[in-house]
Amino acid sequence: MRFESLYSPHKEAMRAIVSAIVERQGLLPQFYWPMDLLGAEIATAESLGVFEGELLVGFVLYRELPGVWEISLVATHPRFSRRGFMSALLKQLIDAKGRERELWLEVHQDNHLAQQLYEKLGFQMSGRRPKYYQDGATALLYTYG
């Protein structure tokens, strides 16, 4: 397992991961990343990836806001989920960015596995956005730092 900042040459692999997620579960409100939105986010956000050998298996997109880092997308290829890759990747991001300022993210109220992971890593729920998602669900806001 290795970590690397991602750039233009990695865009296709990032799209392939999101496509595999959508193919497996569909475009759900808790993971709504159609290719047009994904392309815009990849183009404007910073990214960190986790590799198994030469294969990109997961990545995080984040951006700098005044005083904080906001995480906009957390994605693991379905073949590699629940194997510790995202936990290790988020720890890497926390070590690199979480020491200098807070990290923020949001998660669908029904995404209990993600909530457990974030809480295990030290994120704390810091707020709610009622009726934020297309299905009327609440977004739970988490903060680290």
Describe the structure.
- The protein is of the alpha+beta class.
- It has one domain: Aminopeptidase, CATH 3.40.630.
- Helix content is 33%, strand content 34%.
- It is built from 4 helices and 7 strands; from the N terminus they run βααβββαβαββ.
- It has helices at residues 11-25, 35-44, 85-98, 112-120, and strands at 2-5, 46-52, 55-65, 68-76, 102-108, 124-129, 139-144.
- It has a 7-stranded mixed beta sheet, with helices on both faces.
- Strand 3 and strand 4 form a beta hairpin.
- It is globular and about 40 Å long.
- The two termini are 26 Å apart.
Lateral arrangement of strands in the main beta sheet:
1-2-3-4-5-7-6
Q: First CA to last CA: what distance?
A: 26 Å
Look at the structure and give the CATH class. Alpha Beta
Oligomeric composition of the shown chains: single chain
Largest sheet: 7 strands, mixed
As a whole number of angstroms, the C-alpha radius of gyration is 14 Å
What's the CATH topology label? Aminopeptidase
The H-level CATH homologous superfamily, spelled out, is: Gcn5-related N-acetyltransferase (GNAT)
Name the CATH architecture.
3-Layer(aba) Sandwich
State the domain count: 1
Runs in which pLDDT lies below 50 for 5 or more consecutive residues are none
> Average pLDDT, to the nearest integer?
90
Tally of helical segments: 4
Approximate strand percentage = 25-35%
